[in-house]
Amino acid sequence: MLRALSRCHAPVVRLLSPRTAVMVETVRGRKSRTEPKAKSKAGRIKTPPPVDPVEMIVLKERYTEYNLILRALRLEFKEQMLRKKYEEEVGSVAEERAKREAEEHRSLMALNDAENLRIHKIREQRMLKEAEAAELKKREAAILRQQELEDYIKEKERQILQLQEEAKDFITPDNLDQRIEEALDNPKNYNFAIDKEGRVVKRTAFQQ
Amino acid sequence: MPMKGRFPILRTLEYLQKGEVVFKKSVKIMTVNYNTHGDLSEGARKFVFFNIPQIQYKNPWVQIMMFKNMTPSPFLRFYLDDGEQVLVDVEGKDHKEITNHVKTILGKSDKVLEAEALAKMELSNPANFGPKKYFLRECISEVEGQVPHPGFVPLPKEMTGKYKAKLAANSDE
């Protein structure tokens, strides 16, 4: 439908013939320029509809008035819309909106800052706890090291004392003869068996 | 084509369109600083993985950058067009909490979004006829229940003009 209308080049005949002549032209329509007129339309004389001059004058006046009023209304509404749009974008409404939005933005930023502060406090506490734990660990490690050092020293001292004890029984060039005599006098018997616990189980008789 | 990645649902249009955060016009850049390891950045990591695609889909003109392992504690930073920088601490927060917080401070509220959607709907009236590209229908004959176009379905004889003219001629005689 729309397509048919868009193809129509000639202006549509006005309802009442306007100022001068009839503005009807041949409409191309379905056929091309070379095709002849249809046989049924051979003797057709197209006449425009008859016009009553008195009626035409009256109608024309009424129509001009009507068009005037309608056009005025349309332009009025258009101006209203444009004004509203202008106010919204540039005028007082926009300023109020901007102010309101700035207010909201400030309050939201305050909210955000409060939130950040809260998390900051939590973080501080966590840091303190961690610092304390680290301090504790360090002290304990120091104590442990101290302990180990002392143990080591004690162990070494014990060993030295034991060595001193054993040194008393050492064979020196002085008591060499004496010790030889002793060894020859007390023969030792190494023929014995032990069980798994280390206790002596059996002793065989001493044979020289 | 098989699904790609650990969470292929993150690549679906449906998931992206479900994003809630639409930034205000003044937000231009968003920066996320977080760590790849550590308990405190867990929420930030999930936020980056699950919610950033939605945010970027809804705000295609906002630049979003991620910085990894440069900070002891994770945070978000927004750069507005008047030079203001908004810092949001996200240490220890859950990704849902982060989204909600961001939506509250810098996102458009639900009311505003609804108003915008309404304004957009007003532009295209479904009652208008015109080219198929912009409107629903081109001609009333396309609507079900109306008289179809004679080009597709011939009219019944009684409605054609020549039949009516013949009737008129016969009755005149």
TrEMBL record, chain A:
Q: Report the main location listed first in the record.
A: mitochondrion
- Gene Ontology cellular component list: mitochondrial small ribosomal subunit
Q: Answer whether the UniProt record assigns the keyword Ligase to this protein.
A: no
Q: Which domain of life is it from?
A: Eukaryota
For this UniProt record, give its keywords in alphabetical order, as a comma-separated list.
Mitochondrion, Ribonucleoprotein, Ribosomal protein, Transit peptide
Localization, per the record, is:
Mitochondrion
What family is reported?
A: Belongs to the mitochondrion-specific ribosomal protein mS26 family.
Please give the name of this protein: Small ribosomal subunit protein mS26
UniProtKB/TrEMBL annotation, chain B:
Q: Does the keyword Ribonucleoprotein apply?
A: yes
Q: Do the record's keywords include Phosphoprotein?
A: no
Write down the SMART domains for this protein, in alphabetical order: L51_S25_CI-B8
Write out the annotated subcellular location: Mitochondrion
Superkingdom as given in the UniProt entry: Eukaryota
- Gene3D superfamilies per the record? Glutaredoxin
Question: Mind listing the GO molecular function terms for this protein?
Answer: structural constituent of ribosome
What keywords were assigned to this record? Answer: Mitochondrion, Ribonucleoprotein, Ribosomal protein
GO CC terms, sorted: mitochondrial inner membrane; ribonucleoprotein complex; ribosome
Please name the PANTHER family in this protein's record.
Answer: MITOCHONDRIAL RIBOSOMAL PROTEIN S25 (PTHR13274), SMALL RIBOSOMAL SUBUNIT PROTEIN MS25 (PTHR13274:SF2)
- Family under the similarity heading: Belongs to the mitochondrion-specific ribosomal protein mS25 family.
Annotated protein name in UniProt: Small ribosomal subunit protein mS25
Q: Which organism is it from?
A: Cirrhinus molitorella
